[in-house]
Write a structure and sequence with these properties.
By secondary structure, this protein is of the alpha/beta class. Helix content is about 40%, strand content about 20%. It has an eight-stranded parallel barrel with strand order 1-2-3-4-5-6-7-8, surrounded by seven helices. A three-stranded antiparallel β-sheet has the order 11-12-13, covered by helices on one side. Helix 8 runs parallel beside helix 9. The protein is elongated.
Length: about 525
């Protein structure tokens, strides 16, 4: 099995993405997770460029062996500046001071950049590259050389781009990484240039560093590997500057599961990929992309009835891999497009019983559920992320639902003083086990007050709801043409530490939409209990 080194640059190149700002603690957490997952290299940052990265490397140094069990920690920098001795370059000295054993430095391989960005001669640039690599090698460091803008440079001036690679090799570089920095190349470009370059230097290992500006970063990386590259640089979830870097969450399973390459320290760790993707999103404070290949929440979601019917017989009909292999799961969605197969599959998944009875056949019960879902969705409901609410309407349609409480009345008051202070107060009157429960509670907002009031009224009857807490809250206007009288859809996600569930409410009144979602959440928790 051919080994491919995965070089993760989430903490360096990924941090350059818009809206991403890792703290030192964030970087350490992600670095440890990547090491545990089993990548080969983790690029921690540029120690000569900012105090945060310097502090990161300092803290990693204190952890001993730079804190890793599987990966090599990498410090990043540029070649020496023009017109100075290499030993006097502050950036290169900062790399040595960081204590790492592996470094990655970049140099210009496009003569356009040499002229306009560096404002120096082609010859001086070649000296900057070879001398910088040789200097770092003299310090007993492993050196990865990033040939920046290599593909654009090769197309523009092939002879000079090749000379840049020669200069890095002459300095003693261990690996040459060909960088597709502007992200505009297509796979055919990558294949041709990688093939021709590797043929010129058969004794050196090459890598690929792709950006996603043309949407081809993953395809370009895979194409480069198939042409002989033995290192892939990328980021978790493809985060990075502009349109992002090559997404390792797609590259790793593609190479491991579909091409038989060995990319991480243990093949069984690939089952942790979806969890790692979510973990990085959480720390980066990014909304997960549900459609992300392999690891997205909808990567193995099926809505059309004909699809569900087929995968029930053979999952290969509509799934390119078993989702379990990457730590993901199949999802059967319920919507107005659902057929009998969707409802039966979902019912089985949620332990809903649909047996024949004297009064009704199973087929009639399923039709009743589908009809209710279609009617609800026609009025703005959507059950793809509100499976708990679907569970409740299915129970009601099947005649197996017994409510734990019923609403008699609620009222919400919001007061704002002249000094700007806002107070929200809710009053709820419920029928619980034949008794009238009347409670009053305040909150930071009207929804918080209503939720506090609901829990206050029920907790003495159902103490298990004490463990329930809100995780996410989303509001969407459905028919915006109606302006302020438009319907709104409220989706709320709750959890009790062991399980999470989503509920939905729809109304022209946002408070009432919230009440529907809040009460569904409590009913679901109690039913599951």
């Amino acid at each position: 099995m051919k080994r491919i080194s995965i070089f993760d640059t989430t903490l360096r190149d990924g941090s350059q993405g818009a809206g991403i700002a890792f703290t030192v603690e964030d970087k350490i957490k992600i670095a440890k997770a990547l090491d545990s997952f089993g990548v080969s290299y983790i690029e921690g940052g540029w120690p000569g460029s900012n105090p945060k990265d310097e502090l990161f490397f300092s803290k990693m140094k204190k952890l001993g062996s730079l804190g890793f069990k599987n990966a090599k920690l990498v410090a990043f920098s540029s070649t020496r500046r023009k017109g100075i001795e290499v030993s006097e370059d502050e950036n290169l000295c900062a790399i040595i001071k960081s204590g790492v054993k592996t470094v990655c430095i970049f140099g210009k391989s496009w003569d356009l950049h040499v002229k306009y960005a560096l404002k120096t001669t082609d010859e001086e640039n070649l000296k900057m590259i070879s001398e910088s690599v040789a200097f770092l090698k003299s310090k007993k460091l492993e050196v990865i050389f990033d040939a920046e803008h290599y593909f654009d440079g090769y197309k523009s001036n092939k002879e000079y781009a090749v000379k840049v690679v020669q200069a890095a090799i002459a300095g003693g570089a261990d690996t040459i990484c060909l960088c597709e920095t502007n992200g505009g190349m297509l796979p055919s470009d990558i294949q041709k240039i990688v093939r021709e370059t590797i043929s010129l230097f058969p004794k050196i290992g090459f890598g690929i560093h792709a950006h996603n500006d043309s949407g081809c970063a993953v395809a370009n990386s895979i194409a480069a590997v198939e042409e002989g590259c033995i290192m892939v640089q990328g980021t978790m979830n493809g985060i990075g500057e502009r349109c992002g870097n090559a997404n390792l969450c797609s590259i790793i399973p593609a190479l491991e599961l579909k091409r038989g390459y060995e990319c991480i320290s243990s093949k069984k760790n690939i089952k942790k990929l979806s969890e790692l993707s979510r973990y990085v999103n959480e720390i980066a404070n990014l909304i997960p992309d549900d459609t992300r290949p392999y690891v997205g929440n909808n990567a193995f979601a099926h809505k059309a009835g004909i699809h569900v019917s087929a995968i029930e017989r053979n999952p290969e009909t509509y799934e390119h891999i078993n989702p379990v292999l990457v730590g993901n799961a199949r999802r059967i969605l319920i919507s107005d497009l659902s057929g009998k197969s969707n409802v039966i599959s979902k019912a089985s998944e949620m332990s809903l019983s649909i047996e024949d009875t004297a009064a009704e056949s199973a087929s009639e019960k399923v039709k009743k559920v589908i009809d209710i879902v279609k009617d609800k969705e026609n009025n703005g409901y959507q059950y793809e992320d509100a499976e708990a609410s679907f569970f409740l309407i299915a129970k009601k349609a099947l005649g197996s639902f017994k409510p734990f409480f019923s609403l008699m009345q609620y009222r919400v008051i919001i007061e704002k003083d002249t000094d700007g202070s806002i107070v929200s107060e809710a009053t709820v009157k419920l029928n619980v086990k034949g008794k009238e429960e009347h409670s009053v509670a305040e909150g930071k907002g009207p929804i918080d007050a209503l939720n506090n009031c609901l829990f206050k009224a029920l907790i003495k009857y159902y103490p298990d709801i004490k463990s329930v807490f809100l995780m996410d809250f989303k509001v969407r206007v459905i028919n915006s043409a109606a302006n302020t009288a438009a319907k709104v859809r409220v989706l709320i996600e709750f959890s009790d530490s062991s399980k999470s569930w989503g509920t939905i409410g729809v109304s022209e009144n946002i408070i009432d939409a919230c009440w529907q979602a809040l009460s569904d959440s409590v009913e679901y928790k109690l039913l599951k209990k």
